[in-house]
Amino acid sequence: MMWLRRLVRGLSIWWKKNKITVISGHASFKDKETISVTVADRTQQTVNTERVIIATGSKPSSIPGVVCDKKRIITSTEALSLESVPEKLIVIGGGVIGLELGSVYARLGTEVQVVEFLDRLIPGMDFSLAKEVQRILKKQGMKFFLSHAVQSATVSAKKVKVSAVNNKGVDVEFNGDYCLVAVGRKPYTENLGLENIGVTPDKQGRIPVNENLETAVPGIYAIGDVVAGSMLAHKAEEEGTFVAEKMAGQKPHINYKAIPGVLYTWPEAAGVGFTEDELKAEKYNYKAGSFPFKALGRARASMDTDGFVKVLADRETDEILGIHMVGARAADLIAEAVVALEYRASAEDIARMSHAHPTYAEAIKEAMLDATEKRSIHMWVFRKNSLKRVIAYKAKIYFLLSTNIIKIYHYGRNDKLSVSAF
After folding, report:
1. Distance between CA 26 and CA 36 in Å, rounded?
2. What is the pLDDT of residues 306-364, one digit of tens each?
3. Integer distance in angstroms from the first to the last C-alpha of the chain?
4. Per the domain annotation, does 31 fall within a domain?
5. Which of 100, 125, 122 has the alpha carbon at shortest distance from 323?
6. What is the spatial distance between Cα 99 and Cα 134, in angstroms, rounded to a whole number?
7. Would residue 343 count as lying in a domain?
8. Helical (H) or strand (E) element with 369
9. Alpha-carbon dihedral of residues 141, 147, 152, 157, nearest 10 degrees?
10. What is the pTM of this model?
11. What b/e sequence results for 363-389 when a residue is b if at least 16 CB atoms lie within 10 Å of its CB, and e otherwise?
12. Residue 225 gets which letter from DSSP?
């Protein structure tokens, strides 16, 4: 953990350099301008201030019938410090935290069973990502039980039993060495003395704020996990910067649709902007383009061929509405998508920009080309028996073959041919 200690030490140096005073302890409001801090030796320190930013974050939540003892029925906090690799791990929740930690233990050799209430994984991300991630993680050995409602979790000796009911009303039982409860997080807004300043959290424990992230009390702001929106560190970072700039008299902005979500499994998954389900619900006139990693030279060289990039764009204006991907380094690749959304680029704009070869980023360019009148250069996929598609591409394929640009190879079980460049 040397790197972690260095990181913490680096933060201390940064605080000192920027003349930031750090008081470690539990803080609560006495009134809107006075904060009481209980420090390590249980003594009280009082801080007087004109402005306050509440950024207390969140903590793991649970569900009825499941009590985390932090020994066998654990949260993400305890999952990071188990003394040994368990033989069997039950994960309640198929969201980001459950899949990330579950996949880590699966790669270490643990038999991982994911029990999810919904009929899909990673709710909030594009459904195509959920299907691809499930396919990939299943191939890695993880087991998924969707549409299962957990009723209880009990500990006996060094084993855990989880009881659930599936969508057919049948009782199902899961047994393991540990049970990881990963059903989301809840804002940490308890015992902050909010009642002393006239701030009342909503039913989910979130602090109501206006468009400036200011509470009902002038001069008191709230950001990050304690307010509505996604619980992401980089979202909180943007909000912190926003509030600081507001205080300084500047005019910042945050485009929440341009804040990416990332799943840190391997391969990674990431998305930004509208999902396809959201566009369908709005009956939006959109178009889509995609490109698989298996047709990407860099991915084939590194043997990271799982995944794809999908682009959603306005059918009339070509403006990019959403970009979603599963694949190697998706967490890094999504930054290009954020830039595209923030500057309201069209699919053709990105398609016409040079992308270095060989890189994973070429998948974004190709997906943009596919969204731009199906003009992807380096791959066509068609069924052997689809005569119309064969005829449509026949002249183009012959030309590329004659110039030695492409090779044709067969892949998969679904009777498809792929034409890809090298």
Report:
1. 8
2. 999 999 999 999 999 999 999 999 999 999 999 999 999 999 999 999 999 999 999 99
3. 42
4. yes
5. 125
6. 9
7. yes
8. helix 362-371
9. -10
10. 0.87
11. bbbbbbbbbbeeebebbbbbeeeeeee
12. G
- Residue 333 dihedral angles phi and psi, to the nearest 5°: -65, -30
Report yes or no on 82 lying in a domain. Answer: yes
Q: Which tokens go with 99?
A: 């899949």
Beta strand 416-421 pairing with 178-181: unpaired
Domain that holds residue 417: 379-422
Question: In 3D, which of 154, 63, 147, 94 has the Cα closest to residue 163?
Answer: 154
181 and 199: one domain? no
Q: How many domains does the chain have?
A: 4
Q: How many CB atoms lie within 10 A of CB 237?
A: 13
234 is catalytic: no
Question: Of 168, 185, 202, which residue sits at a domain end?
Answer: 185
Q: Give the tokens for residue 299.
A: 């991915």
Q: Domain ends where: 254, 280, 297?
A: 254
Task: With respect to residue 17, please indicate whether it lies within any of the assigned structural domains.
Answer: no
Where do we find the tokens 């594009």? 126
From the list 148, 324, 355, 357, the catalytic residue is 357
For the chain, the helix, strand and coil percentages under 3-state DSSP, each to the nearest 5: 30, 30, 40
